[in-house]
Design goal:
498 residues, 74% helix, binds beta-D-glucopyranose, Major facilitator superfamily (MFS) profile domain-containing protein, membrane, symporter activity, monosaccharide transmembrane transporter activity
């Protein structure tokens, strides 16, 4: 199987112009990130809207307004959490299906289907009359996200010339953050409108429509065409996207890669049984596990709920969310610009340290000021928490956010790259589901201790990076084993010494 996630150096000698076609195709595909981000950002605000709670979760609404209700348990409800997390459950199965279907039918039809699923989900949610319709809509959105997240990053890597592959790849994460920001702003606007939640949820149709229309204009990737025996068409597309007549060199490279990887009949079996694949499998999958256990989606999903828990009004908490999401988008640009200079490990360790410090501070503040019953009396505490959350989010945005996706795409050997990448996507979905489903209950039970738990996780992941993750910056992808894994103090034992 050919996947195009190759790194910058791998094809550095291959001639290519930076064509309009490549930028257009990458930007259109990255709109898949906008869909993902819009969804991440919309659910928190919607679940804090009274009209939404009255219609679908009346008991939560009543509980929220009971004066003597425990502060930490206001929103604890399994069904309410299922509204947020059902999407990710569907996403896991959808991305598995996508990894198979995109190999068989190409990347383009899968990207088109992703937007179609997402559009249907948005429409169903807009018209939702009962909980079943709402959850049904979420499942359709989840299929869209699963198809998109599995295919878009691979698509961009396959279409981009090697030199600018890293930067174009991070555009996916950048559009995720723009989607989150847009969603929180939409929530802010709709919160005062009658049945505003309908417009918030229906708004997901906008990125879906952009992707659907745009996907008619993108090219199928040469790698996918050649992989499926359509050599002439593959050459035609290569000429177009590289802006050159002579593309024989790159064509032959892809052909060679196809032949090698086609020998592997069962990439998943190869991935799980061959000991040499263990180091990237462990590191790539754990990176996504840790990405979620930074606690980022506690902020992304439930920031408005958290701010309300601390006693901020409805509007103030939605504005605070727009602010944190703005910080998220801006800080991501720093990663895009600096990650090929300062390296992956620097950002991962720095980010984990920054997040540890802020989680401890937030936990300590809540422990001191947010008692079980009654609002926070100090007026400055919610503001300090907002500032701390911004520092926390920026730490994530230039480290574990983009690198959680980039590193798994550059550490696998070609023949198991697609299967390995699926494991990272699936781990992301599983952990996002767990956080989405259990955070509010955990907040109710463990209160501020939860923030200390995430702080400990951040320490563990920082140590993991220091001791177990090799630096991948500037290493040709096909040399990763020779230059890194085989020389690593721990991972080298998985390789037969010759
Ligand atoms: C993560 C999401 C997260 C987002 C925040 C992504 O990389 O996978 O779970 O919500 O970043 O920007």
């Amino acid at each position: 199987m050919v996947t195009g996630v190759m790194n910058i150096e791998e094809g550095a000698s291959l001639p290519a112009k930076n064509t309009f076609q490549v930028f257009m195709c990458s930007i259109i595909a990255a709109v898949g990130g906008l869909m993902f981000g819009y969804d991440i950002g919309i659910s928190g605000g919607v679940t804090s809207m009274d009209t939404f709670l009255i219609k679908f979760f009346h008991h939560v609404y009543e509980k929220k307004h009971r004066v003597h209700e425990n502060n930490y348990c206001k929103f604890d409800d399994q069904l309410l959490q299922l509204f947020t997390s059902s999407l990710y459950l569907a996403g896991i199965f959808a991305s598995l299906a996508a990894s198979y279907l995109s190999r068989r039918f190409g990347r383009k039809p899968i990207i088109m289907s992703a937007s179609a699923f997402f559009l249907c989900g948005a429409i169903l949610n807009f018209f939702a009359q009962e909980l079943g319709m709402l959850i049904g809509g979420r499942i359709l959105l989840g299929c869209g996200i699963g198809f998109g997240n599995q295919t878009v990053p691979l698509f961009i890597s396959e279409i981009a010339p090697a030199r600018i592959r890293g930067g174009l790849n991070l555009m996916f994460q950048f559009l995720i953050t723009i989607g989150i920001l847009a969603a929180s702003y939409v929530n802010f606007l709709t919160s005062t409108v009658k049945d505003g939640w309908r417009y918030s949820l229906g708004g997901a149709a906008v990125p879906a429509l952009i992707l659907l229309i745009g996907s008619f204009f993108i090219h199928e990737t040469p790698a996918s065409l050649i992989e499926r025996g359509k050599d002439e068409e593959g050459k035609r597309v290569l000429r177009k996207i590289r802006g050159l007549e002579d593309i024989e060199l790159e064509f032959n490279e892809i052909k060679r890669a196809t032949e090698i990887s086609n020998k592997v009949k069962s990439p998943f079996k190869e991935l799980f049984t061959k000991s040499e694949n263990r180091p990237p499998l462990v590191c790539g999958t754990l990176l996504q596990f840790f990405q979620q256990f930074t606690g980022i989606n506690v902020v992304m999903f439930y920031a408005p709920v958290l701010f309300q828990t601390m006693g901020s009004g409805n509007n103030a908490s939605l504005i605070s969310t727009v602010v944190t999401n703005g910080v998220n988008a801006v800080a991501t640009i720093i990663a895009v610009v600096m990650v090929d200079r300062l390296g992956r490990k620097f950002f991962l360790v720095e980010g984990a340290t920054q997040m540890t410090a802020t989680q401890i501070s937030i936990g300590a503040l809540l422990l001191k000021h947010l008692h079980l019953i009654g609002p926070i009396t100090s007026r400055s505490v919610p503001l300090i928490v907002l500032i701390l959350i911004c520092i926390y989010v920026s730490g994530f945005a230039w480290s574990w956010g983009p690198l959680g996706w980039l590193v798994p795409s550059e550490i696998y050997p070609l023949e198991v790259r697609n299967a390995g990448y699926f494991c990272a996507v699936a781990m992301n979905m599983v952990c996002t589901f767990v956080i989405g489903q259990f955070f509010l209950s955990a907040l109710c039970r463990f209160r501020s201790a939860l923030f200390f738990f995430f702080a400990v996780m951040n320490v563990i992941m920082g140590l993991f990076v220091i001791f177990f993750l090799p630096e991948t910056k500037g290493v040709p992808i096909e040399d990763m084993a020779e230059q890194r894994w085989k020389k690593h103090w721990h991972w080298r034992k998985y390789f037969k010494q010759n």
